[in-house]
Amino acid sequence: MTRIKKYIYIGLGILATIIGIIGIFIPILPTTPFLLLAAYLFSKSSERFLHWLLTNKLCGNYIDNYRSGRGLPLKQKVLTVLLLWVTIGLSVFVFVDTLWVQILLLLIALAVTLHLIMIKTCRPDTNGIQTEHMDVQPDLEP
Fold first, then answer.
1. Beta strands, E only, the chain
2. Helix H or strand E segment including 60
């Protein structure tokens, strides 16, 4: 890989990370695709940035749970849906006067809500490790 291509990938990875982190706090902005894109870009350009992203307290577990298919914790799902509808509700009923934009915002909120509901729900076990939301029998062997 050329140095220019490497720096472009790093720059795009940083941009994707920033947008993904903003998406954690702004429900209408998708978080997961941007963080996964950042992980891909860093995997092609910088082991250091990839390691930082995957071990970061803010988004490391989020990426790991999603990539491994474990899903999202119920608390995170509920909080995201709540913030999504508060944000969309304020936009639709307070800030936006155009009917087609209001309808579009409500459809986006509905689609994001359905997507979140369809993602597998995981919960932390007693060791703090995320597991799927089902009865898991602990291994009692030494």
1. 72-73, 121-124, 130-132
2. helix 60-67
Token pair in block for residue 81: 């849906």
Q: Cα 62 from chain centroid?
A: 6
DSSP code of 120? Answer: P
- Tokens representing 22? 């903003």
Q: What CA–CA distance (Å, rounded) separates 25 from 121?
A: 20
In the block, residue with structure tokens 């291994």: 139
For the chain (142 residues), the mean pLDDT of every run of 10, in chain order, is 90 92 76 83 92 86 78 80 85 91 91 86 60 41 44
Residues in the chain: 142
